[in-house]
Design a protein that fits this description.
The chain has 119 residues and is mainly beta. 12% of the residues lie in helices and 46% in strands. The protein is built from one helix and eight strands. The strands form two sheets. Strands 1, 4, 5, 6, 7 and 8 form a six-stranded antiparallel sheet that branches. The longest helix has 14 residues.
């Protein structure tokens, strides 16, 4: 299993976690809605921005994205900054937003949504 590049520094600004519900909720005619467990695992999405601090790092990251994880189709090992556990993740829909942060194009921010299964 490929691993997420160590040179891609995760920025906490804009980092967010959204977890899908594992419950089925039914509205009732009277009284509170009923809820029950429907799934044993949940898909978790993480909004992530990484900083790439050189042109070489940016080029290497784009090559990793294109060739190693096949434009986001493949799963890879990623260290969750909350738990420090290694989880299998992929880039949702293979979508990246790339933003140069200086005119020399030596500092980049790349944003994407990671999705992974949580137990």
């Amino acid at each position: 299993m490929p691993a997420f590049p160590t040179y891609a520094r995760v920025l906490l600004d804009g980092y967010a976690v959204q977890q899908a519900s594992a419950l089925k909720r039914t509205e009732m005619d009277a009284g509170p809605p009923k809820q029950r467990l429907e799934r044993s695992r949940q898909m978790t999405e993480r909004q992530v921005t990484v900083q790439l601090r050189s042109r070489d790092d940016y080029t290497a990251f784009m090559a990793w994205f294109r060739d190693t994880i096949h434009r986001g189709a493949d799963w890879f090992d990623w260290t969750d900054p909350e738990t420090l556990a290694t989880v299998q993740a992929r880039i949702k829909a293979g979508e990246l937003q790339r933003q140069p942060m200086n005119p020399a194009l030596t500092l980049w921010h790349v944003s994407f949504t990671l999705e992974s299964w949580d137990a």
